[in-house]
Amino acid sequence: MPKHGKKYRKSVEGVDLASLFTVEEAVQKSLAASYAKFDETVDVALNLGVDPKYSDQMVRGAVSLPHGLGKTVRVAVFCKGDKQAEAKAAGADIVGAEDLVDSIKAGNLDFDAAVATPDVMALVGQVGRQLGPRGLMPNAKTGTVTFDVAKAVEELKAGKVDFKVDKAGVLHAPLGKVSFGAEKIQDNLKALLDAVQRLKPSAAKGTYMTKMAVSTTMGPGFKVDPTLIRKFMEN
């Protein structure tokens, strides 16, 4: 059993962390239990009734959250020619091709998301080992391999979130900052759940969203009654 500090213990006083809550209650309790001096990120963990070892049950996508993430997203774009000016005009922080690949090989990964045009993906593949483990590899399924680099950059800057179910069938995603308040966090969560629902694999049988918990960076997780997730999405 991990040891928790005084602030954590105080934040969960009188709270039964084994209880199941409505989505709205879980969000509100998570915000109330936040105690860090910085503006914590609110996260959701969603267990899906899929087996990701089968390719037809992999759930991966992206969603533009209506209220963004409340943070500055540094975007790198791999492209050539006129696309470089287009990317810069859209607000890209780093733009390049061979030079950007060389910079990454040298250990420079000062960005939070990456976009690439399809014609340079062979180049990007050279730094796949550096980008992949950090979740920075451009991917067509999340809209980050595209010739429309301006749209991709603008969406990422506005708070587009990539999500992917892990080997255990759990999907983790950020929902914004504690300072957003419950209403905006719930709006962002609803947008995420809608996107995940649309990607439900036809091979997935039984209950799709089996468990859910909401937490802040430093705070405890509040579990949601899975039978109430659908009701929240429909409100």
From TrEMBL:
SUPFAM superfamilies assigned: Ribosomal protein L1
Cellular compartments per GO CC: ribosome
Domain of life: Bacteria
CDD domains in the record: Ribosomal_L1
Gene3D superfamilies per the UniProt record, alphabetical: 3.30.190.20, 3.40.50.790
Functional description taken from the UniProt entry: Binds directly to 23S rRNA. The L1 stalk is quite mobile in the ribosome, and is involved in E site tRNA release.
HAMAP family: Ribosomal_uL1_B
Family affiliation: Belongs to the universal ribosomal protein uL1 family.
Name of the protein: Large ribosomal subunit protein uL1
Organism of origin: Taurinivorans muris
Gene designation per UniProt: rplA
